[in-house]
Amino acid sequence: MTTEKNTFRLNKALAQAGICSRRKADELIFAGKVRINGDIVTEPGRQIDPTNAKVEVNGSPIDFHLEEAHIYLMLHKPIRTVSTVYDPQGRPTVLDLIPEEYRQRRVVPVGRLDFFSEGLLLFTTDGELHHLLTHPKHHLPKLYEVKVRGEVTNAKLAIIRKGMTLAEGEQLAPVPVSIMRREKGNVWLSMRLFQGINRQIRRMCRDLDLTILRLQRVAMGPVKLAGLPSGECRELREDEVNALKKAVK
Question: Helix %, strand %, coil % for the chain, to 5?
Answer without folding.
Answer: 25, 30, 45
